[in-house]
Amino acid sequence: MRNKMPSYYQMTRPIEKLFKGSQSQFEQLIRNSFDTIVLLDSEGIQRYVSPSCEHILGYKPEELMDIPVIEQLIHPEDQKKTRAGLKDIVENQTNGGTQYRHRHKDGGWVYLEAFGTNQLNNPDIQSVVLNVRDITERKKAEEALRESEARLSELNATKDRIFSVIGHDLRSPFNSIIGFSQLLAKQVKKKDYEGLEKYARIIHDSSQKAMDLLANLLEWSRSQSGNIEFNPKYFELTHIIQEAVELSKNAARQKSITLTQDLPHNLKVFADKAMINTILRNLISNGIKFTPPGGEISISTGKSTHHLVVSVADNGIGIKKEDLDKLFRIDVAHSTSGTQKESGTGLGLLLCKEFAEMNGGRIWAESTPGKGSTFSFTIPTINKV
Fold first, then answer.
1. How far is it, in rounded angstroms, from Cα 330 to Cα 347?
2. What CATH number matches the domain at 137-228, 2.40.128.600, 3.40.190.10, 1.10.287.130, 3.50.50.60?
């Protein structure tokens, strides 16, 4: 059986003497305090809660007394550490503090910080005394700061990736263009026309590579800065896929790669047409890059509960399991040369991820090394924009 708790006046009398005022003045001080005073017994039952709790938690003091507060009102994820903190104060006669989430009367959660002292052996108090403060706004500020730091880190990674692309990956195709155009000019000057077609093709391919890379770089930079316009409309997806395949046929033909389609008619979607086109262009281009001559790339669609799934599958070199998670991350630079030493930056897949998410979908990859890869993305079938 628990010891009988002292009366309110007995519990507050030592503090009131220090205050040197009337009891009503002291009660006004406690009532209007920003903090709440709580008295617990050794088992965590609240025996007294000061009136200021109503400002913080919405409950009247009598609603919070004579209850096991940890089990009933503290967030399940915070109960273990809160219980351990109380046990430490009770058993080790220590002072301690912890932060936890307490249910508000409206059903929400309030972040509290409690500092406790063991006064169980004090005949005037016979309790664990807690000074409880609302730190919800502080927690929100800390969370905002963490989000800001994460965003800053992401922006720095974006800047580094852009500088890497400009400094290295764009330089490579332009070096080819400059070098072979000079060689081409010399051959023409000497009226030695042998190999001109070969040089012209290299210049063309290098120019196309630089243009595609620059387009990705500009689109991705705009998406990161929030300057890209999101313009969703209803359109026929099959036509967009067929257009992307047609644009990729020349590159596929040069490697003797077959492009196949398994598409139903009348695939109406509500999305940003230009973004979906960019995703398809990048995924098909990647498939061509990592598929050996004579290979095959297939584009197909399927349906899940609320999404249309578009897949681009190849029978190329595949991706190691440990590299799959690196594909769509800005903070990890991951690039693999194609089957004919084609270079890459990883920007295309980052752009695909940005655009898929902006349209309410997601993107992922499945792969078996040596057998090929399948990249899939979703478009919601219900207008959620």
1. 9
2. 1.10.287.130
Give me the pLDDT at residue 135, please.
92
Q: What is the pLDDT of residues 315-369, one digit of tens each?
A: 988 888 888 877 877 666 555 645 544 555 567 888 889 899 999 999 999 998 8
Whether the CB-CB separation of 212 and 173 falls below 8 Å is answered with no
- How far apart are the C-alpha atoms of 275 and 233, rounded to whole Å? 11
Q: Where would I find the beta strands (DSSP E) of 193-265?
A: 232-236, 258-262
Which pair of structure tokens corresponds to residue 305?
A: 């509960």
Contact 239, 371 (CB under 8 A): no
Residue whose C-alpha is closest to residue 154's, from 9, 311, 354: 354
CB contact at 8 A, 325 and 367: no
pLDDT in tens, 232-280: 999 989 999 998 898 888 888 888 999 998 888 778 889 999 889 889 9
Q: Are 345 and 335 in contact (CB under 8 A)?
A: yes
pTM, to two decimals: 0.52
Query: What fold is seen in the domain 8-134?
Result: Beta-Lactamase (3.30.450)
Residue spans per domain, the chain: 8-134, 137-228, 230-385
| φ, ψ (nearest 5 deg) of residue 235 | -155, 165
Residues of the chain with pLDDT under 50: 1-12, 14-20, 337, 340-341, 384-385
The pLDDT mean for the chain works out to 81
Residue 210 one-letter amino acid: A
* Total residues found in the chain within this entry: 385
CA–CA gap between residue 278 and residue 286 (Å, rounded): 12
DSSP string over 330-343? TTS------TT---
Amino acid in position 40? L
